[in-house]
């Protein structure tokens, strides 16, 4: 179902603005598409040659150290791609040799045909090129999308050896990288360039696989897979969605930009709510109210004089402040205990009654798996923003399980809690009707308070009337872009919350 985040009828219809997304496909989706295509055209050999020619032309554009090329080929159709690529390159004046990596394996019909048509020389020993490895380009056509991320000892040894080559080019997927997840072998082929066909694959853009895939060049061969098959996964970056940043008309006033209430800051965690509210105000929320412990009122106003703050040791004192909101963000600095639990209970009730958006983060995510919240129905317009540890708690699994397949984790969170799930971390994943992978963000953002600020950003975007999924994309990529900027200008260490706020101010007005 589509979740609307619009809280004012006179807002700009942000949903009418288009957003470019990079469609990404699983190995099964690509294979199914190829099978249906082969049935229609009945000419899979010429399609393979077309792909090989496109790849050979692309390789000519790369800066190679010499004309010497060694192609590693496996027993499948990816090997056939490699052999045809070699034939085309040889005709263009390159010195090409082949190495059959798995000679005892049965070869596919298309690979056999490619070998029959080829007059390339076969290298039976990698040692023959060892002394010239620094002058040679290696092309990996071993497995492609049919490959596996766990390599045997023989392949590990081979990959370690060829990874010292001057230039390394993978066809579709480097050997040792999973096509459908972030899993990779430690000795995977470390491609300088990857040339892929028909559509982008999930494993080309995720997690640790990026260590083996420096850049990806798509050759869709004019097939336009998106016209036939709808992708369930896509990736995006800040430049794709920044046009959806809330715009201010010349006669705007603060009431046009929504009223956000942030419930945060139980005993010992007063700074969390302050950071969330600062992020929300910088991101353009019209009116922001912080509901916190009474002891933190002075600190909050000292840091943010324009903030409205309500503080009390009695959680029952805040009903009016919660009724006030167009959007409620709940969780930064909350913890098990009566005060946090009562406020969260009220927030869920009010959001259900008023049908307004609720954002749950941090401590709130630890509470919803406890009584009485496990029996409460979350509002229809709920966003959860867990980091890997919180996601593991929400799904009763380990952090390693979360990180081993983040797409699967985000999907499970979305299904179990019937909400939009934002799985934070490197390449933050947003799960709604489909999966959205954010390309922005670096380890510079791995600092205390970073997640609290992101909660404020999401709240601000929702308060401004963006649809919930779009609000998440804009907030997450804006946050990630700030990390990118800091890493490129300074490095990955030393970012503070104040610096992050200033980077947000710059990027939100770009």
Q: Give the helix proportion (percent range).
A: 25-40%
Gyration radius, rounded = 26 Å
- Tell me how many strands there are: 19
User: Are there runs of 5+ residues with pLDDT below 50, and where?
Assistant: 1-18
Number of DSSP helical runs: 17
Oligomer: single chain
Which structural category do the helix and sheet elements fall into? alpha/beta
Q: Summarize model confidence as the mean pLDDT.
A: 90
Q: Describe the strand arrangement of the main beta sheet, using strand numbers.
A: 8-1-10-19-18-17-16-15-14-11-12-13
Strand content: 15-25%
Largest β sheet strand count, sense and barrel closure: 12 strands, mixed
Terminal residue distance? 32 Å
Gross morphology is elongated
Report on the structure:
With 510 residues, the chain is of the alpha/beta class. It is built from 17 helices and 19 strands. The protein has a twelve-stranded mixed sheet, sandwiched between helices. A seven-stranded parallel sheet has the order 4-3-2-5-6-7-9, with helices on one face. α8 (297-303) links the parallel β12 (287-292) and β13 (308-311). The longest helix is centred in the C-terminal third of the chain and has 22 residues, at 468-489. It is elongated and about 85 Å long. Mean pLDDT is 90; it is low at 1-18.
């Amino acid at each position: 179902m589509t979740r609307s985040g619009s809280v004012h009828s006179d807002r700009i219809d942000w949903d009418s603005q288009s957003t470019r997304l990079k469609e990404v496909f699983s190995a099964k989706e690509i294979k199914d598409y190829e099978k249906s295509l082969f049935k229609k055209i009945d000419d899979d050999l010429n399609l393979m040659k077309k792909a090989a020619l496109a790849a050979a032309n692309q390789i000519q554009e790369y800066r190679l150290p010499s004309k010497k090329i060694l192609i590693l080929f496996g027993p499948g159709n990816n090997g056939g791609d490699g052999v045809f690529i070699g034939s085309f390159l040889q005709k263009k004046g390159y010195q090409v040799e082949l190495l059959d990596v798995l000679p005892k394996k049965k070869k596919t019909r298309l690979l056999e045909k490619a070998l029959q048509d080829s007059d390339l020389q076969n290298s039976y020993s990698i040692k023959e090129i060892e002394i010239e490895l620094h002058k040679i380009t290696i092309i990996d056509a071993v497995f492609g999308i049919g490959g596996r991320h766990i390599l045997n000892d023989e392949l590990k040894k081979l990959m370690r050896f060829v990874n010292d080559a001057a230039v390394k080019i993978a066809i579709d997927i480097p050997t040792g990288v999973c096509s459908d997840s972030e899993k990779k072998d430690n000795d995977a082929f470390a491609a300088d360039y990857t040339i892929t066909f028909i559509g982008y694959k999930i494993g080309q853009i995720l997690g640790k696989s990026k260590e083996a895939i420096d850049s990806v060049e798509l050759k869709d061969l004019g097939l336009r897979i998106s016209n036939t098959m709808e992708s369930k996964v896509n990736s995006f970056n800040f430049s794709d969605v920044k046009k959806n940043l809330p715009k201010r008309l010349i006669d705007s006033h603060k009431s046009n930009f929504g009223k956000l209430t942030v419930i945060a800051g139980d005993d010992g965690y007063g700074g969390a709510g302050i950071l969330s509210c600062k992020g929300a105000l910088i991101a353009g929320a019209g009116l922001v109210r912080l509901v916190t412990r009474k002891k933190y009122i002075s600190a909050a106003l000292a840091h943010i004089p324009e903030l409205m703050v309500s503080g009390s040791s009695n959680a029952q004192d805040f009903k009016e402040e919660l009724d006030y909101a167009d959007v409620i963000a709940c969780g930064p600095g909350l913890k098990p205990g009566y005060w946090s639990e009562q406020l969260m209970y009220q927030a869920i009730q009010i959001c259900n009654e008023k049908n307004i958006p609720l954002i749950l983060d941090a401590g709130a995510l630890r509470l919803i798996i406890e009584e009485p919240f496990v029996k409460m129905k979350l509002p229809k317009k709920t966003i959860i923003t867990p980091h890997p540890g919180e996601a593991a708690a929400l799904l009763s699994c380990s952090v390693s399980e979360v990180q081993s397949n983040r797409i699967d984790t985000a999907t499970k969170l979305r299904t179990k809690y019937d909400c939009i799930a934002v799985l934070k971390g490197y390449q933050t994943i947003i799960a709604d009707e489909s999966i959205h992978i954010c390309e922005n963000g670096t380890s510079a953002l791995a600092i205390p308070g970073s997640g609290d600020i992101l909660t404020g950003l999401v709240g601000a975007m929702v308060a401004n009337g963006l649809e919930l999924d779009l609000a998440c994309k804009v907030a997450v990529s804006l946050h990630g872009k700030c990390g990118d900027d800091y890493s490129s200008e300074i490095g990955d260490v030393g970012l503070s919350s104040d610096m992050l706020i200033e980077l947000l101010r710059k990027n939100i007005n770009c």
